[in-house]
Design brief:
By secondary structure, this protein is an alpha/beta fold. Helix content is about 40%, strand content about 20%. It contains 15 helices and 24 strands. The protein has helices at about 50-65, 70-85, 90-100, 105-125, 160-170, 185-200, 215-220, 235-245, 270-280, 300-310, 335-350, 380, 395-405, 420-430, 460-470, and strands at about 5, 10-15, 15-20, 20-25, 30, 40-45, 135, 140-145, 150-155, 175-180, 205-210, 230, 250-255, 260-265, 295, 350-355, 370, 390-395, 410, 410-415, 435, 450-455, 455, 470-475. The strands form seven sheets. Strands 16-17-18-15-14-20-21 form a seven-stranded mixed sheet, with helices on both faces. The protein starts with a strand and ends in a 9-residue tail after the last strand.
Length: about 475
């Protein structure tokens, strides 16, 4: 296996990054591009041995990093952000090649956000304080103590952005990290290791290991030296991680699937509602927060559908490296088969494909809208994770809320209405970790993020991230009684 491959002119190391060194594995796996299905290269395939080595490296580096001042930690995180900004074009083209998301989005939004992740948590660290308080004259002081080595397992749909959303606060909190990227999109995590090393991050503070699912994941999540696990991905994988972590009572943060609604009321700005609806095809529908279930008030449903179809059919699907492309490929043949299976079963059960409903050439699936779907049907209840949306109607506010909440998930919800009081009433009743009113995907890193029900456990963002990645300590000090050492 070659130690490095060249991706669109960018050299990417295919080995693990453990303890400040590149480490090869006896076995490899093939990483392919969803753009054309062609192999990109062979990637080191880690297992229990690599997992143990990475955790050991993180454990060895932890005391020194935990003792590092907040100011120095923040400086190094800003240095990593500087390195990201210098390599935005390289990171963008490598990630587009690896996971098929739009190159224009990576250049303009995703990679700048990667740098912002580091800068935000570096700055937040320097202002992190809890107001002291008294109890019967005793002083209480709350502090955030670094917890220890953290295992961070990240998904393939936004590989580097979601990885750094976890890595940045974990490092800022004084923890060391073992990052395990998704096997379908591992390349930018390797580049991040290079950037962190160039920024001067001490050896062992950030480790990156690659591998397939449980082959390496079980060893990482069951290691007794791991003190935090953060995972973004599917519910079945989260269940396995929870079982693995239970033996050591390792705290978990889980951001899982969604089946989020877009509620469109008759008093909404219909052009805005349609724009929000079409936006749900972003990243070929591979967005956990996507509002895949349209719930539209009966009186405007026909007009909404007409305008939606007109706008959605104008989207250009094709090579994500083309500036004019709106929708790229789906990540993997297995995912494409899953998407198509959902649609075929829905149509067989009576659903009607207003647009789409079929594969295109290669790993592309036509943007799809299904109507005449039952509330208890699979297509309404289960996450597809592709460019497949459903449309149902409601008669009144009560029915809208009932339909919106009637799944096992609760990650997000989007609401379109021109009535402020209605917006307040409905959002108060929606089961969701995030609710957007007349907007979508507006994210501030200081806000709590996570899901309800099967959409996750815990919240991250701002102080919530430090609460998770730290052991909070309250020191209670009695008044007076101090000896004079002068």
């Amino acid at each position: 296996m070659a130690d490095k491959i060249t991706v669109a002119g960018v050299a990417v190391d295919t080995r693990h990054w453990i303890g400040g060194q590149r480490v090869a594995s006896a076995e490899t796996f093939t990483d392919s591009s969803p753009i054309d299905g062609q192999p990109i290269g062979e990637i080191a395939r880690g297992g229990p041995a690599e997992a143990r080595a990475a955790v050991a490296a993180a454990k060895a580096a932890f005391p020194g990093w935990a003792a590092t001042s907040r100011a120095e930690r923040a400086r190094l995180l800003h240095a990593i952000a500087d390195g990201v900004e210098k390599r935005i074009e390289e990171l963008a083209i490598v990630e587009t090649t690896d996971n098929g998301a739009l190159l224009r989005s990576h250049r303009r939004g995703v990679m700048p956000r990667v740098a912002h992740n580091f800068r935000f948590f570096a700055d937040w660290l320097l202002t992190l304080e809890h107001e002291d308080f008294e109890t019967r004259g005793h002083a209480n002081h709350v502090s955030w103590d670094p917890a220890g080595p953290c295992v961070l397992i990240t998904p393939w749909n936004a590989p580097l952005m979601l990885a750094t959303w976890k890595v940045a606060p974990a490092l800022a909190a004084g923890n060391t990290v073992v990052l395990k990227p998704a096997e379908w999109s591992p390349l930018t995590a390797s580049l991040l290791a290079d950037i962190a090393a160039e920024a001067g991050l001490p050896a062992g503070v950030l480790n990156v290991v690659q591998g397939y699912g449980a082959e390496i994941g079980d060893a990482l999540t069951s290691d007794p030296d791991v003190r935090r696990i953060s995972f973004t991905g599917s519910v079945p994988t989260a269940e396995r991680i929870a079982v693995s972590a239970a033996a050591n009572l390792t705290p978990l943060s889980l951001e899982l699937g969604g089946k989020s609604p877009l509620l469109v009321f008759a008093d909404a700005d219909l052009d805005l509602a349609v724009d929000l609806a079409v936006e749900q095809y972003d990243n070929a529908g591979q967005v956990c927060l996507a509002a895949t279930r349209f719930l539209v008030e009966e009186s405007v449903a026909e007009e909404f559908t007409r305008r939606f179809v007109e706008k959605a059919t104008a989207l250009k699907q094709g090579d994500p490296r083309d500036e004019a492309t709106d929708i790229g490929p789906n990540i993997h043949p297995r995912q494409l088969e899953k998407i198509d299976g959902f649609v075929r079963r829905a149509v067989d059960a009576g659903a009607r494909a207003v647009i789409g409903g079929h594969r295109e050439d290669g790993q592309y699936y036509a943007p799809t809208l299904l109507t005449e779907v039952a509330q208890d049907s699979e297509i309404v209840q289960e996450e597809v994770f592709g460019p497949v949306l459903t449309l149902q109607t409601f008669a009144d506010e009560e029915e809208a809320v009932r339909l919106a909440n009637d799944t096992r998930f609760g990650l997000a919800a989007t609401l379109a209405t021109g009535d402020r009081e209605r917006a307040e009433r409905v959002t108060a009743r929606l089961v969701a970790g995030t609710v957007w009113v007349n907007c979508f995907f507006v994210r501030d890193l200081q806000a709590p993020f996570g899901g309800s029900r099967l959409s996750g456990v815990g919240r991250e963002g701002g102080t919530w991230s430090f609460d998770f990645y730290c052991d909070l300590k309250n020191t209670v000090t009695a008044p007076g009684g101090w000896k004079d050492h002068g």
